[in-house]
User: What shape does this take?
Amino acid sequence: MPGIAVLLSGSGSNLQALLDAQAAGDLAGEVVLVASDRAQAYGLQRALQAGVAAAYIPLRATRGPQRQQWEQRLADIVACFEPDLIVLAGFMRVLSAAFLERFPNRVINQHPALLPADGGDTVTTTSGLVIPALRGAHVVADALRLGLPVTGCTIHRVTPRVDDGPILARAEVPIQPDDTVESLHERIKAVERRLIVATVNRLLAGE
Ligand code: GAR
Assistant: This one.
């Protein structure tokens, strides 16, 4: 069974979708490791409840040699589990080229907004609307602030450029007039949870 490592920083509802699919026999792989930069990340509890190895790798500095050591430690732990796929499921750290070179073509990321295939600054929706490509850590709030009628989610291969890389899957989510960041993000995540299971299965099937 192909191994999947999941890196996360938060609640881990997407991890749960993978674990649930695995328990139901609907996942073409096995989650072998969950690792986090945050001790309080609820995703670590979800891993332990499912009997999956969980690792917290404390990050003491966001730049300089300590940041590099942290990433090296993370890469060493991930490498021990020899995963076929590494899923960034709400992982709020940017991985360097050194990390990515260690796991070539094996790291994928979930992003709670639509990203373009060409790395550009705009995305064309299925209805032909051209909207800004939202990148960074606050894209759900950005979509509301900009008054967009639609946003969505993207799964892409990870490259050293932030929120960039070949698109694997994308889905649109309409924005309601009374949406808050929480209500919109929850609807996006409901779509993401289905998309991540389908995309992982597709990748592990060699497509
Ligand atoms: C998801 O919406 C994912 O796209 C986003 O974090 C959420 C994790 O939800 N990722 C990023 O923003 C990465 N920059 P979860 O913890 O409930 O799975």
